[in-house]
Design brief:
alpha/beta, Rossmann fold, 2 domains
Length: 226
């Protein structure tokens, strides 16, 4: 519902000056700004925790978040907001990153929580959640994609820079959907902890992937994927 033609009522078109009026109305409905989406995977966390509240960042994970925060700050961009998963590891990662980006508002959401977005193709033997999990998580993660990954609003005048701190499964699924690749291939990608994935959404709706899972700013001994 952001395609210009979908935003106007063609039935109300003036029959005498139809083409000119349509062109004018279409221009009024076209986005003007570019959105830059930075998808950050949370840092390394305690895998032994049974409940989410126990799955806190490890000391290395906290170092990774500091490095990611420093990297984002070094880009010199005016970030508009940080939207993060409500899970503990994503929240803690956000808190550390935000120290390097003072004044940028933080928003927590359940939509970006980790889950099983869609059954992967080809299947893998080491990860087989119950089928019902795909239905429960898949609808939510698809809702996150539709809610957050889209062209700029018509009223937006300047380019925007937004950070999303969430999880590997969510990011991989979003990348596939945004690039119009088969979403079942999401598990073919691998993302390091604290990595940066950069999507660009142009005013015409075209999407480009600038970076996928970048951790080149981290020393080799600080890089993990678990």
């Amino acid at each position: 519902r952001r395609e210009p033609l979908a935003l106007i009522n063609l039935k109300k078109k003036n029959e005498e000056t139809g083409e000119e009026e349509l062109a004018s109305r279409l221009d009024h409905c076209k986005a003007k700004a570019t959105r830059h989406i930075f998808l950050i995977r949370h840092s390394q966390y305690n895998l032994d925790g049974r409940a989410d509240k126990d799955r806190t960042l490890t000391p290395l994970g906290r170092e990774q978040a500091e490095l990611t925060g420093q990297r984002l700050a070094s880009l010199g961009l005016k970030f508009d907001q940080i939207i993060h998963s409500s899970m503990t590891r994503a929240t803690e990662t956000t808190e550390i990153i935000s120290k390097h980006l003072p004044g940028v508002k933080k928003i927590s959401t359940d939509l970006l929580r980790e889950g099983a977005p869609i059954e992967p193709d080809p299947p893998v033997s080491h990860w087989k959640p119950e089928a019902v999990q795909y239905y429960e998580d898949g609808a939510r993660i698809e809702a996150a994609f539709r809610n957050f990954i889209h062209r700029a609003d018509v009223k937006q005048e300047e380019d925007s820079y937004e950070i999303f701190v969430c999880h590997a499964n969510v990011i991989r699924y979003i990348v596939c959907r945004a690039l119009q690749f088969p979403p079942e291939g999401w598990l073919r990608m691998s993302l390091n902890n604290g990595s940066i994935t950069h999507l660009v959404i142009r005013p015409n709706g075209r999407v480009a992937l600038r970076t996928l899972g970048d951790t080149g700013f981290m020393p080799p001994d600080k890089i993990t994927r678990t």
